[in-house]
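Exercise: predict the fold of this chain.
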Amino acid sequence: MAKIDMEIVKQLRETTGLGMMDCKKALEETNGDIDKAIDLLRKKGASVAAKRAGKETHEGLVHAYIHPGSQVGVLVELSCETDFVARTEDIKKFAQDICLHIAAIKPLYLNEQDVDPKFLEHEREIIKGQLADSGKPEKMIDQIVEGKVNKLYSEVCLLKQPFVKNDQLTVEQAVTELIGKTGENIKIRRFARFDVKA
């Protein structure tokens, strides 16, 4: 096993926010390749998230953010398994980052299940109308409509949006990484965005 330079370990720790030992082990397993180590740590985080998915989340926090100028405000509720994790800096920082994301990107819903069926039907009708004169077969039009609806989810649903702090991840994937880091099930329970000009 190759000896891993501590500077590379520190660099990986700064990138992922995970502990030194986790970072060192990941680098050892990937022969010092940072990109592969990040992928390995993400997979481990996803595996922890899958194991914790059924755990009850009765603790948590509500975080408030007021954008400079006091024209936009956000409230977000995060839930987790224990009050110990709810008080950690990782959770507080994540709550702040989610508030900043909501303030900037303006999601309308938390996830696909929350999307108003009337809104969705209206959007489907608009898309079908745009494709009506395309001459494409009905089956192909239906596939295109579903593809555009899935893209719509990534625009209006918080969990499906590219995360403002790291657009290589969706917000949902960022939650999964946080679960891997804390070892507890964590959920964004709900949010509210207030805008004086809206």
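Check your answer against the key: Helices lie at 6-16, 20-29, 34-52, 83-86, 89-105, 117-131, 138-156, 171-182.
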